[in-house]
Write a structure and sequence with these properties.
The protein is about 95% helix and about 0% strand. It is an all-alpha fold and about 45 residues long.
Length: about 45
């Protein structure tokens, strides 16, 4: 496999990884927000 093709494939893989990482980060932030909201709600009930 030529180095140029390998670099191109790696760049495509890296861009896909960064995109999925951004999706994962947004999902984690949403879960954290939900967790803090539920904790505040529990504190209000107590």
């Amino acid at each position: 496999m030529p180095a140029q093709g390998r670099d191109r494939q790696f760049m495509r893989l890296a861009s896909g990884l960064s995109r999925s990482r951004a999706d994962w980060r947004s999902a984690v932030s949403a879960a954290r927000r939900l967790r803090t909201l539920s904790r505040m709600r529990l504190r209000c009930i107590e």
